[in-house]
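Quick one:
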Amino acid sequence: MSAVLISAIAFVVAFFVGAIPFGVLVSRAFYGTDLRRSGSGNIGAANALRTLGKRGAASVLALDALKGFAPVLAAAALGGPLPATFAALGAVIGHCWSPFLGFKGGKGVATFLGAVIALWWPSGIAFAIVWLAAVLACGYASVGSMLAALAMAPVLWFGLGPLGFAYGLAGALVIIFRHLENLSRLRHGTENRFSLLKAPRQS
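Output:
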C-alpha cells in the first residue's frame, strides 16, 4: 500500500476519532449537564474547568489530547512520518468541526497538543513552556494557546524537518481561526483573564 493511500486513510480515521466530543460525553454522563449549554458553550477543557470543576476539566483535557495522540502514533507505526502528519491534521480538524455535533466543535488546542507529542515528544514540553509563560505574562489562556501553537512550526522543523514545519503551521492556522472570537474580544478589551488557580469565566 502506498504512503499516499495510507496517509489518506490515516486522515479519515483520525478525523472521526478527533470528532468524538468527549467534552459533551463527559459532561452528560458524569455531571448531568451539557458543556454546549453551559458557560461559553465551548466543549473544551477551559469551559469544562468552569462548568465541571478541576476533575472534569482534567478528564476532558486528557481525552481530547488522547484522540490526537493515539491516531498519530498508530499512523506512524503503520506508515511513517507522512501518514502520521496527515493523522495529526485530521484529528484536529475533526475536533474543531465534528460531524457528530453538526460540524461544530472545540478549538483544537488539546488535540493539537496530543498530536505534536506523538509526532515528536519534546515538542509537547515546548508547547507547555510557551503556553505557561504566555499565560503568566498576559493572563489570557487564548493568547497562550495561539502562541504555543505558532511555536510548534519551528520546533517541529527542528525535530522532523519540513514535514513537521508544515503540520505545525497548518495546525496553528486552524487554532487561530477557531480563536477569532477571542481575538475580537482581545481587541476590544473584553477578553476575560485566566487564573491558573481558579476557573476562568470565559474560554
